[in-house]
């Protein structure tokens, strides 16, 4: 078991088919492993409604990993099935575990539309019908004729869904609940009931659906050899279904997983953790929003509260901490991009803390050329090196100031170089007297980031005055 694991989200929204991501993964696997990445989250690998221009979240055929000429191409946005399997293989050769991104909430891009009775719902209160049941034409028939029953002969139709957002006969948008169906109660409570997100919403109370998705999950694990799942849009999926599904999949092997429950309210996350019996770690969305607010407050954020009301503080063993992702990028659905100046502070807060599994975003690491966002590779690589080589021993916090906060890792005996002091400010620069403990006493420290040039001497008692610049972070290690 490797210590100090680091997950990386290996894609951003604006990648193009020409970027051939799976091939890039194969090329980079060795470098990533040597840098210190232990786990990689790859984007949805199956065919979306948009074919090779689909980021993968408009799930069409879960069995088409870039193998069948469906939706205009054999390959997906990221490449072919063989390239995907090769990429996973190359990551495994380099001791990196792979998380597959899976979208189970909905399907989009049906082969045929069919008539079904449905009531239109109030969009802000989905528990309320706006109309009596009437006949609509819904895109709910999935035949996959090109795949021709390879891997599975399951065909989807309106019985397998709760509702949709488009009536083809009336050419009308809305939220339509199919007659005889109800929104599941074990979902997020925003908009009255947030079961419905997009496309044709899958009905997890249908036993054929449950059986087929279990069959598919087992197929996926055996076919691809992935080590875990990133579960998309779990707040829209019956929580008890998700927990049972993961439990069944874990009978095959001890799968890792992380759920995307996009809500900054800890009460909602607590409810989900309770409902899923603490078996599904979640992205720390509240932490992301704290970082976002701090980055937009020009120093007027109380840094002593930066970890307040977060998953990593309240449920550290279930927290996957992150700075930004493909949805928070400029121009995307959950736009909440953390400003440049704060990014190093944010990465220190996820990579150099003891708690949480940190997840590095591809768009930060390599940059996002289409939106003039620069690569932070040099900064992130330094912090990864610190996590790998120095982040051991007890953690002591100095979250005691409106602007300048700090924490210490005291080092341990197994890693002779280990131990550090992180100090950061969202406002003016300054210093803080820190006690680093006995292992680091009577030593000279330097700033690994190079932001502060002077050295710091720690006395016999382990006390030293450490510094950072304004709106900056410094990481002090033994010289
Ligand atoms: Ca749903
Ligand atoms: Ca402040």
Question: What does this protein look like?
Answer:
This protein has 479 residues and is an alpha/beta fold. 23% of the residues lie in helices and 24% in strands. It contains ten helices and 24 strands. The strands form five sheets. An eight-stranded parallel sheet has the order 13-12-5-2-1-16-15-14. Strands 6-11-9-10-7-8 form a six-stranded antiparallel sheet, with no helix packed on it. A six-stranded antiparallel sheet has the order 17-18-19-24-21-22. The model has no long low-confidence stretch (mean pLDDT 97). The structure holds calcium ion (2 copies). One calcium ion binds at residues 299-303, 402-403, 426-427.
How would you briefly describe this protein structure?
It is built from ten helices and 24 strands. By secondary structure, it is an alpha/beta fold. It has helices at residues 21-35, 81-93, 207-224, 239-249, 266-275, 285-295, 311-314, 343-351, 362-365, 377-390; strands at residues 7-9, 39-42, 47-48, 59-61, 97-102, 106-107, 112-121, 134-141, 161-167, 172-178, 200-202, 228-231, 256-259, 282-283, 319-322, 357-361, 395-398, 404-409, 420-425, 430-435, 444-447, 456-457, 463-468, 472-478.
Features:
binds calcium ion, TIM Barrel, alpha/beta, 10 helices, eight-stranded parallel β-sheet, 479 residues, Immunoglobulin-like, elongated, 24 strands
